[in-house]
Amino acid sequence: ADPLATRHNLLPITATMPVKVGINGFGRIGRIVLRAAVKNPDVEVVAVNDPFIALDYMVYLCKYDSTHGRFNGTVSTEGGKLIVNGQAISVFGERDPANIPWGTAGAEYVVESTGVFTTKEKASAHLKGGAKKVVISAPSADAPMFVM
User: Rounded to an integer, what distance in angstroms lies between the CA atom of residue 72 and that of residue 80?
Assistant: First the structure.
């Protein structure tokens, strides 16, 4: 076993164990994260939070995105969830990241794509909801930044 992986409590990523991701903010960045994730078998989006977008409008934005084009797949709703290519995704409408039940939804990582919670202090509120790690998509004043 890799001692570094053990020290940081990381598990190897395999096709049988996808990383479970939550997306906070379903604007332009949140939607492109979803599109990239559904193409990657090692990533599973399990939840989306956006207090300003109704579920039916999420479906429309995902299907007919003016920035990213038409979605090449199926998008619908069922039982209050967003269904993308047959996979059910929990949807929340919380303004306070501490109140989003990421852990209940199974999200280990949260992509913070609102552009609002960009400091370590603000983004760490997602940890209160059960997330283990937060990836901030916008520039941050105090969090480490990586260009990939």
Answer: 22
Length of the chain as a residue count: 148
The C-alpha atoms of residue 19 and residue 127 are separated, in whole angstroms, by 16
What's the pLDDT at 10? 53
Predicted confidence at residue 5, as pLDDT, reads: 44
pLDDT < 50: residue spans in the chain: 1-8, 15
Q: Report the distance separating Cα 11 and Cα 34, nearest Å.
A: 23
**Nearest residue to 121 via CA among 104, 134, 105, 131:** 134
Amino acid letter, 5: A
Q: Beta strand pairing status for 43-49 and 87-92?
A: parallel
Q: Rounded to an integer, what distance in angstroms lies between the CA atom of residue 76 and that of residue 143?
A: 36
Residues 6 or more apart from 137 whose CB is under 8 A from it?
Answer: 29, 33, 111, 112, 113, 115
Residue 6 confidence (pLDDT) = 42
